[in-house]
Amino acid sequence: MKTFKIGLLGLGTVGGGTLNILQTTLTEIKRRIGHNIEVRIIAVRDLNRARSVDVSGIQMTTNPEEVVSHPDVDIVVELIGGTSYAKDLLITAINNGKHVVTANKALIAEYGNELFALANQNNVIVNYEAAVAGGIPIIKAVREGLAANKIEWLAGIINGTGNYILTEMAKPGADFEQVLKTAQALGYAEADPTFDVEGIDAAHKLTILASIGFGIELQFNKTYTEGISKITAQDIQFAKQLGFKIKHLGIANRTASGYSLRVHPALVAQDVLIANVDGVMNAVMVKGDHVGPTMYYGPGAGAGPTASAVVADIIDIIRAQSQNIEDRVPGLGFKAEQLAQAPVEAIDQICSRYYLRCSVNDQAGALAQISAKLADFQISVDQLHQEPSLEDSEAVTLVMITDKVQESVLNQALLALTSLGVVDSELQRIRVADLG
Amino acid sequence: MKTFKIGLLGLGTVGGGTLNILQTTLTEIKRRIGHNIEVRIIAVRDLNRARSVDVSGIQMTTNPEEVVSHPDVDIVVELIGGTSYAKDLLITAINNGKHVVTANKALIAEYGNELFALANQNNVIVNYEAAVAGGIPIIKAVREGLAANKIEWLAGIINGTGNYILTEMAKPGADFEQVLKTAQALGYAEADPTFDVEGIDAAHKLTILASIGFGIELQFNKTYTEGISKITAQDIQFAKQLGFKIKHLGIANRTASGYSLRVHPALVAQDVLIANVDGVMNAVMVKGDHVGPTMYYGPGAGAGPTASAVVADIIDIIRAQSQNIEDRVPGLGFKAEQLAQAPVEAIDQICSRYYLRCSVNDQAGALAQISAKLADFQISVDQLHQEPSLEDSEAVTLVMITDKVQESVLNQALLALTSLGVVDSELQRIRVADLG
After folding, report:
1. Where would I find the ACT domain in this sequence (chains A, B) (predicted)?
2. CATH number of the A348-432 domain
3. A5, A87, A205, A373: which is the annotated catalytic residue?
4. Domain covering B349-432: architecture
């Protein structure tokens, strides 16, 4: 029995949760691994702040440099967030030969390539299970559990705030602004909700999932990102009538010549299991060529779930200590020299079905004109729904689901439709995700 | 780059699927592990049988002993099934210092304790991801992904045949016998469906899940097993009216003084995600004390999914070769000497809500008599539904959901009810699984 020593950067929600697990569940963990784990030193901002966890006997410091350079520390756990100082600290930790665990999705998505390269040079491990979908062991499932597969695609509800908002907006009388306020009051959304609502947080996670699924470098800057702030309660109701739910998804799939990485709202057929994942819960579907469709569901945030993933990473590092370095699970699941180079395609290269909503003057022939114009672009309409406009008694609201079409073609068609003058400029366009 | 050599026992559905992956996906797998995998020898029953997989260049034998004793073979993959000859072969393989991968749930559930002990003595690994829920990496999720948690309970749809039958029985006009015939025609159920329909297959899997969840020895003989053959289409309809679906579940939970291991039909509230897992698909919920509720979903059977798990096990063994033996993930997820000894309790010790259906004579006071008798045993009724009997115009069918009660107490109450003479002897009783 060896004792492995942890240096903790940060003692906020997740840091406190991590310390709590290592105190309350240590006996159960020792039954599993046959080794001891000790939190040796913690860097905090304020030494005098009252804590809900017991830090007696643990060295406390306000200087994070002390943690990443501490001679006793085997594993540095970074839970302070941000991509600037956190990155510098982890670079020092890695150069000092420390293994690293982080829950920092932004850091991995934006700087993971260089961190993994540096870790390889220093023969240490960088683990990040908590960075995607909180407590769900999705990184392990993709990097190891499905390692016999060529992953065809991944699609996930990977931002709990967004999923909570869309779930609540499906209830009668709810609208985006009002639901967002409730989410903020409940602590599900930040005062500035941009990161969650505009899809940036989900894009960080999707970037990571795509890399470990396909064996490609992290390419956050090529991940298309669209938020949910333009989705209306009316869209959710129309989608429902057509047999769909609207979910904010991160989707990564292979294309003819490369990959598509994207975060956007999408219609999902009601009978697909992930369409029924509601509230703040997360779920990731992974389609492997041999296994077929699988799904992983659980809480995507919170002290306990996130810390559960952090401590699982610590356990994995402890077990991998004695392994030959080349036998360890690589940072992105594939050997660094084997990462594929195929391009991430622009969003307008995807093929998808589309939900279209527009308002047209209630004049005979408008529908015929629209259909004809779409037909000019070889776009056929799968489902059609029409109802009187709520705002304007002269107009009708037209809702369509198109057949599959390349987005660049659809864009041209929509432009043509708008210049035709039959539809208003506020045409709503939402992609359909076919996950069957 | 090393080449690891596989000896395959059996080339049926899963054996063929495994060979197929190791041929079609080897390039992708090598990108992950940096080692080569070669199928060196395969034992089959009939050398001359036509195969859908290419066996050219692979030594074929009808003598399985040759595989488990072959000097070149590093890993023996057992896919012949059964618990007698398969066990003998794996004992020889282990004694010969071979690592073992098996998809054989009966073998692990019934003889795993001695196989893991023998493997420990011989410093080899026995992996069995494919034994539970086919392609879903549930063994890895519980043994590793959730290793920071004390697992509170597990509940799973772990037999695709049973889930298919219950799903189809929910459709108008379907009954058990007729749906079973369809399942047999589609190849989802065996000619003798006992193993699936009476819950034995699910009990094997639940036994394994309970062991890795709680860190207890495999105790198949103490797993309570009840099948679905007594569930009627009427029960499914009544359950639906009360807000539930009926699923065949394997459930393992902690009790006041030990554990409960059981397979039986159960009512699950419609808004719990697992209630919406339909057809032949499998799903396992795992509740950890820190992570909360998580769920793992995917195909539970078939060549591709099962082989996906088999090959993931091979990859794990290859990666663990260089690891100190004491650092490897233990067979049951916990160190052998740390397995807990608390008892598995008899089924009548569980506390549950219950669905009760009975036929009563349409006489004033019958309901009052029943309620009074239940009240004598401190059992209160949560939900009540009454409708005219289809068969007997003099009678009504009464459906109740009780509050939580110990099953031994419920049994006494039901006995008292029957002897009262107001209800018929064909009283239906189905447990409610509260998985919220």
Report:
1. 355-432
2. 3.30.70.260
3. A205
4. 2-Layer Sandwich (3.30)
